[in-house]
Amino acid sequence: MKTPFRLFIALLALATLARAQTAPSGQSPIIPLDARQEARLAWFRQARLGMFIHWGLYAIPAGQWPGRTSTSRAEWIMLQENIPSAEYEKLAPQFDPVKFDAKAWVAVAKAAGMKYIVVTAKHHDGFSMFATKQTDYNIVDATPFKRDPLKELAAACHDAGIMFCVYYSIADWHYPDSPAQYSQLARNPITDEKIPNRGFHGAPNPAADVKKYDAYMRAQVRELLTNYGPVGLVWFDGGGSYRLPNRAEILEADQMAAMIHELQPGTLINNRLGVAADYGTPEQRIPNASSVEPFEVCMTLNKHWGYNRFDHDWKNPAVVVRNIADIVSKGGNYLLNVGPTAEGVIPPEAVAILQQVGAWTSLNAEAIYGAGGTPFGAELGGDDWRCTTQRGRLYFHLLKWPDGKFTVPGLANKVIKAYFLADPAHTPVAATADGHGTTFALPAQPPAALAPVLCVEIEGSVKPASAKGKLDTTKDTAS
């Protein structure tokens, strides 16, 4: 018997409420999507790949504060080294990224196959990387650079057909009305290192007025949504740091969300603001199961978000490609981070990796952009393959090259044609079906070095396998 639509919605709402009641404070549940959200998400679901950019004053120490022994620091160095605001502020007059070229950054992203860019407008250190009238602690007023890199990036993105997006930290270790008790960081999300200095602020103010800070944040986000053209999404962060049951109320998050949608109705909001969100943000991990909820895995290309000159532990292109296939097969997006230097240069190691990734995304574009998730269940394929879909087509990303044949258990649909996307001639691959599935006869050597994609055109639609487990986007901390 079919469930009446209204009853279905009511049951879904109750399930959502149950999740909301048990979700940790820093992550918001994804409510059942309404028509406006679905419209906002259209470009996001099509894009699949984005570039995260963490850039700020922390690129100057680049991992190590003068006189300190640790070399594992990056964008959290102010907190991790317990640096007072008066000392940290001295970085601003040194910040002169003369090699910054917005068009070059966007070109790197576009060549890698990225469809959107998310750049740090303000990180936890409180320094604004854009022209703001709310504080002179910003890149235009406080540095010799005197330029607004976000204005230049927005223009370059719009010219290149890349969606421009901004990151904004709720936590602020510098602003005088951001109380220290609202900046409680329990651990470093990269190293899992415990941070003893909870409640950190570079200049603690016993008379801090959080309402003034709320107004300050809204004024800055208003500037970002007014002065930079279309903004695809606002990527809030720092919410996971607040251990308060009524954090959303204290931070007036509903007013922030209402203002955003008043200024730009199409702008997405992630799940770190404290109000109902458009999509989830699992950090440094890929969910185990497919999801009907929109989500975006954010991940570093090495071990840090911001630039660390000591960090040479780069992901190789094969790992990045594998991650893309895995994430898209589960219905998600992949937001891959780079941390530019204090001179404004994306590290050459990162560029080299992204160039190889771009060669793969270019060959296999139809299996990535706008592609749906696997119909077989996320667990099928193991370490060997992943499947993405378009109407009438299955795309098998072969992460390990099979020995002469590749079998898809349970695939009973008639195969119209099978071929590799990396083969410009689309030479047919023979397919044989039996009671156990369909087997494809493969050549001895793969047609591409990185995860060849076998496109299988079929009759009818494959019935989705029931996914085991459910996507959980509530256990992440601030990047």
Percentage of residues in helical conformation:
25-40%
The proportion of strand residues reads: 15-25%
Spans with pLDDT under 50 lasting ≥5 residues? Answer: 1-26, 182-190, 465-478
**Strand line-up across the major sheet:** 5-4-3-2-1-7-6
Number of helices: 11
Q: Estimate the mean pLDDT confidence.
A: 87
Count of DSSP strands: 14
Shape: elongated
Gyration radius (Cα, Å) is 23 Å
H/E element sequence = HHEHHHEHEHEHHEEHEHEEEEEEE
What characterizes the major β-sheet? Answer: 7 strands, parallel
Report the structural category: alpha/beta
Note the gap between the termini: 46 Å
Write a short abstract of this structure:
This protein is an alpha/beta fold and about 475 residues long.
Features:
11 helices; 4-stranded antiparallel β-sheet; 7-stranded parallel β-sheet; 14 strands; 479 residues; disordered N terminus; alpha/beta
Structure write-up:
The protein is an alpha/beta fold and 479 residues long. It has 11 helices and 14 strands. 48% of the residues are buried. Mean pLDDT is 87; it is low at 1-26, 182-190 and 465-478.
